[in-house]
């Protein structure tokens, strides 16, 4: 019988009748402890498989029995029972609520105090899956007093237990600032920060996720995480081989940098920007996304920080991301970040324009395949950069293929720069820009017409009228020679 | 009386004469009157005119003086106003100069310090480079370690293989399979086999004894000195399994025999009866693994205090006189304390935190600052030295 039950979970599809449930339920009450344990194990595996079975477990009133016997049995039974609770709780919030309603939380917390690390691990795992769904369940877990025990579990030597405890704390802290504050008050941050140096990749991944969930809610929490002296150790995690560790490390840095300019400055001073840029360069796909967003947040705070991002060679990397990545949301993030960098002063806009990203942004905005989000973001980025851009060679291609609403801004920029710069005027004519400007049709009295007029007023009348009449490129040079003798552009 | 008579005689003639004279004069009277009037009027006119002229002159003088006085007063006022305006303009110009310099200085130094910004960006880029280099080194180091570990593992595996297959070594009479006479030189495995020692009994490792007080505890946890008296033999004398378990730490021979499973039949039965449990030696080794203390813990916690006491005792031995030697005069006791320049200036150093952290006292939950509960950690000092070896590269 025992052996049969142990092998049954292998053929779960053949056991879809609910009769199994009641059988197992009666076996749970058996005298022999091994049978109880294996029955609980079988139940756990069934519930783990899909949520209908988990609901069936709940409906057959197995949970109260499990909870009652959890308190008194030996550690194998406790492990198996905690496994059942975990398997039931992971599918949906209602099932997790059912577990909480039958008073399982207190017994699970008692299990957390047990000596055997396996029992602790199973209990912590169950608590984690319960707390994962929403804030009320997390609050229930916290009210049962789980958090200090989880913090104690983190300090245990077994790696698996540390992993589970860290992931449980992460899932508790992610819902709301009060819960994150509870986690911090239990003193978790110092221990988590200490363990970043551990070589195990999965553990690092969970720790970084926990720290980023804590720091994302408010400035004070982020400052508390920073005061645990995670910089510059976190930067070594950005060089780890595991993709998830890199992603979570850049998420953590992003959550810290996004709150205030002072925190961003701290990150920049610690050399975080360079490390993140290197990390972006070495990853592909979704792993890059938090790093890209971090650069955008840092640059958005102030122009000095944006300049710091520029000198750390962030802009070429971002433009590479923009052109290489297949996914639209990553492209949108890169476009947003570039817009934030380039919008402050003409120097910044020039740094962005020099890398030839503006045509890419324009093509993304114009292409019909881009998602709406991408189009909106690239349009905003173009507008932000264009308003400050005085680097004319990058603006010239825009005269040819831009849509009218962007063309207006481009021509406006030209009209601001050309009256003051003679070399630029010469270049403008020889590259055919002036001719193109004549071809633009604008309503008289509109802003566009004013810009065109101010551009035309920089040049002698003959040239302007000749260009608007002839529209031939090869005639411009003899014309210039003809009436250009006495003119100094 | 004579005169009177004379006068009376003459009175008629006097009267006639009188009348005659009067009537003669009458026609001239008007003329003469007119003439007199004319003369008088002309003369009076002259007089009056000259008087008027005189008055004119005088009035002109008075007016002249009065007007010049008024003019001077006006002139003074104008001069004052002009002077005032001129001074004001001068002051304005000077003030503009001062303001220009000051505002330029202020903007350059405090609002937008270009050189500071340049410096800052330079420092940031230097930090970036340093961090990049450090991270590269770190990544390289990790790779190297991994490679080394891999190589070592391979090496160990090959070595173990060679030791297991040592019987394939070629002898003088018979060449082994790796040393075929048709080959030019023996296969590298041959050399490996030559180098390898055959697997022998695993001898128990001898632990070193430390010479501090911690060793007592260390000694009692090493497998060699397992406390034999504290564990009781199993109750059921017939059960061979329990006895074997209890006896193996006690009997070294049995212990050594356990390592080499290919020897000894009676040992084999004991081993076979062990059941689904792990090797007892392994369990005991794990259970009573000796502590690997860090440097800080390897010495007693009050070593410094003990050393100091020691020193003090030695000095006390050497002292001739036990009283402390006091200085001659106590004038220095009345001296006022002169603080250093650094402390006594009004302007203290700017704390690092103020530059980067904005404080909002309303948000503070308590008055005290956060305490550092744990000391800070250096970057790589804990690498590979955590308590549990699980999960580490072997």
How would you sum up this structure, described in words?
The complex is a heterodimer of chains A (489) and B (394). The longest helix of chain A is centred in the N-terminal third of the chain and has 17 residues, at 33-49. In chain A, 74% of the residues lie in helices and 0% in strands. Chain A contains 34 helices and no strands. Among the domains of chain A are: 1-178, Leucine-rich Repeat Variant, CATH 1.25.10.10; 411-469, no CATH class. With 489 residues, chain A is an all-alpha fold. Chain A is elongated. Chain B has 394 residues and is mainly α. The longest helix of chain B is centred in the N-terminal third of the chain and has 110 residues, at 2-111. Chain B is rod-shaped. Mean pLDDT of chain B is 75; it is low at 209-213, 218-230, 237-244, 246-255 and 259-264. Chains A and B meet through helix 14, helix 16, helix 17, helix 19 and helix 20 of A and helix 2 of B.
CATH class of the domain at 1-178 in chain A: Mainly Alpha
Instruction: Please give the count of helices of chain A.
Output: 34
Mean pLDDT of chain A: 84
Per CATH, which architecture of the domain at 1-178 in chain A? Alpha Horseshoe
N→C terminal distance of chain A: 100 Å
- Share of residues in strands of chain A: under 5%
**Shape category of chain A:** elongated
Number of helices, where a helix is a run of at least 4 consecutive DSSP H or I residues of chain B: 12
Assembly annotation: heterodimer
- Poorly predicted ranges of chain B: 209-213, 218-230, 237-244, 246-255, 259-264
State the share of residues found in helices of chain A, binned by percent.
Answer: over 70%
CATH superfamily of the domain at 1-178 in chain A: Leucine-rich Repeat Variant
Q: Predict the CATH topology of the domain at 1-178 in chain A.
A: Leucine-rich Repeat Variant
- The string of secondary-structure elements of chain B, in order, is HHHHHHHHHHHH
Q: What is the largest interface, and how many residues per chain?
A: A-B, 42 and 38 residues
Compute the gyration radius of chain B: what is it?
68 Å
Give the overall silhouette of chain B. rod-shaped
**Share of residues in strands of chain B:** under 5%
Protein name (chain A): Sperm-associated antigen 6
Subcellular location (chain A): Cell projection, Cilium, Flagellum; Cytoplasm, Cytoskeleton, Cilium axoneme
InterPro entries (chain A): ARM-like, ARM-type_fold, Armadillo
Function (chain A): Important for structural integrity of the central apparatus in the sperm tail and for flagellar motility.
């Amino acid at each position: 019988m025992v052996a049969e039950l142990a092998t049954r979970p292998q053929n779960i599809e053949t056991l879809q009748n609910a009769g199994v449930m009641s059988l197992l339920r009666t076996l749970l009450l058996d005298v022999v402890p091994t049978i109880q344990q294996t029955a609980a194990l079988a139940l756990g595996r069934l519930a783990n498989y899909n949520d209908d079975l988990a609901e069936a477990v709940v409906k057959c009133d197995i949970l109260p029995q499990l909870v009652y016997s959890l308190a008194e049995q030996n550690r194998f039974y406790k492990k198996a029972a905690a496994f059942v609770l975990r398997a039931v709780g992971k599918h949906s919030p209602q099932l997790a609520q059912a577990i909480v309603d039958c008073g399982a939380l207190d017994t699970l917390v008692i299990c957390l105090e047990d000596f055997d690390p396996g029992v602790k691990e199973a209990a912590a795992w169950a608590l984690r899956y319960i707390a994962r769904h929403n804030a009320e369940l997390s609050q229930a877990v916290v009210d049962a007093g789980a958090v200090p025990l989880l913090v104690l579990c983190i300090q245990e030597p077994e790696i698996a237990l540390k992993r589970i405890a860290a992931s449980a704390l992460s899932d508790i802290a992610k819902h709301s600032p009060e819960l994150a504050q509870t986690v911090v008050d239990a003193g978790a941050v110092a221990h988590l920060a200490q363990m970043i140096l551990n070589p195990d990749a999965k553990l690092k991944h969970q720790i970084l996720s926990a720290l980023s969930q804590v720091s994302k809610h408010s400035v004070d929490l982020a400052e508390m995480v920073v005061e645990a002296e995670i910089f510059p150790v976190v930067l070594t995690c950005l060089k780890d081989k595991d993709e998830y560790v890199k992603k979570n490390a850049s998420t953590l840095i992003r959550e810290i940098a996004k709150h205030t300019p002072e925190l961003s400055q701290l990150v920049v001073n610690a050399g975080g920007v360079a490390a993140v840029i290197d990390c972006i360069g070495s990853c592909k796909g979704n792993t890059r996304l938090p790093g890209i967003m971090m650069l955008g947040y840092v640059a958005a705070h102030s122009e000095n920080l944006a300049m710091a991002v520029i000198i750390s060679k962030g802009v070429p990397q971002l433009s590479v991301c923009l052109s290489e990545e297949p996914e639209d949301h990553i492209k949108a993030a890169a476009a947003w970040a570039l817009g934030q960098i380039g919008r402050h002063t003409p120097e910044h806009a020039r740094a962005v324009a020099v890398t030839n990203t503006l045509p890419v942004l324009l093509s993304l905005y114009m292409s019909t395949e881009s998602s709406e989000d991408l189009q909106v973001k690239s349009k905003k980025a173009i507008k932000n950069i264009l308003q400050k851009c005085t680097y004319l060679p990058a603006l010239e291609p825009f005269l040819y293929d831009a849509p009218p609403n962007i063309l207006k801004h481009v021509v406006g920029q030209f009209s601001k720069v050309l009256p003051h710069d003679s070399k630029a005027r010469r270049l403008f004519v020889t590259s055919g820009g002036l001719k193109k400007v004549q071809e633009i049709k604008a309503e008289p009295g509109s802003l566009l017409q004013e810009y065109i007029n101010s551009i035309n007023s920089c040049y002698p009348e003959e040239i302007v009228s000749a260009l608007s009449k002839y529209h031939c490129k090869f005639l411009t040079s003899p014309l210039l020679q003809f009436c250009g003798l006495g003119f100094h552009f | 009386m004579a005169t009177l008579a004379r006068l009376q005689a003459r009175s008629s003639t006097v009267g006639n004469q009188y009348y005659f004279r009067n009537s003669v004069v009458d026609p001239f009277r008007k003329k003469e009157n007119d003439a007199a009037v004319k003369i008088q009027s002309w003369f009076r006119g002259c007089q009056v005119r000259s008087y008027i002229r005189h008055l004119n002159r005088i009035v002109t003088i008075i007016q002249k003086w009065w007007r010049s006085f008024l003019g001077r007063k006006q002139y003074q006022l104008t001069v004052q106003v002009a002077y005032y305006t001129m001074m004001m303009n001068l002051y304005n110009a000077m003030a503009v100069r001062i303001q220009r310099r000051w505002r330029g200085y202020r903007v350059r130094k405090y609002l937008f310090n270009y050189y500071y910004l340049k410096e800052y960006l330079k420092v940031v880029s230097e930090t970036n480079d340093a961090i990049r280099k450090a991270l590269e080194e770190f990544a390289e180091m990790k790779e190297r370690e991994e490679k080394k570990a891999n190589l070592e593992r391979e090496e160990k595996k090959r070595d173990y293989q060679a030791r297991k297959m040592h019987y394939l070594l070629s002898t003088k009479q018979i060449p082994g399979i790796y040393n075929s006479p048709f080959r030019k030189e023996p296969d590298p495995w041959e050399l490996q086999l030559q180098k390898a020692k055959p697997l022998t009994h695993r001898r128990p490792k001898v632990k070193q004894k430390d010479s501090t007080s911690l060793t007592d505890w260390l000694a009692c946890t090493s497998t060699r000195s397992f406390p034999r008296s504290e564990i009781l033999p199993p109750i059921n004398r017939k059960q061979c399994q329990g006895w074997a378990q209890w006896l193996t730490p006690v009997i070294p021979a049995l212990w050594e025999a356990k390592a080499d499973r290919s020897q000894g039949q009676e040992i084999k039965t004991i081993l076979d009866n062990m059941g689904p449990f792990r090797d007892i030696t392994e369990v005991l080794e794990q259970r009573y693994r000796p502590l690997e203390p860090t440097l800080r813990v390897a010495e007693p916690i009050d070593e410094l205090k003990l050393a100091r006491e020691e020193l003090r005792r030695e000095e006390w031995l050497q002292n001739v006189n036990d009283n402390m030697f006091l200085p001659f005069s106590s004038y220095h006791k009345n001296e006022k304390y002169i603080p250093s320049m650094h402390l006594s200036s009004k302007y203290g150093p700017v704390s690092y935190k103020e530059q980067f952290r904005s404080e909002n006292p309303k948000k503070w939950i308590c008055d005290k600052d956060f305490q550092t509960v744990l000391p800070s950690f250096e970057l790589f000092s804990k690498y590979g030295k955590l308590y549990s070896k699980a999960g580490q590269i072997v």
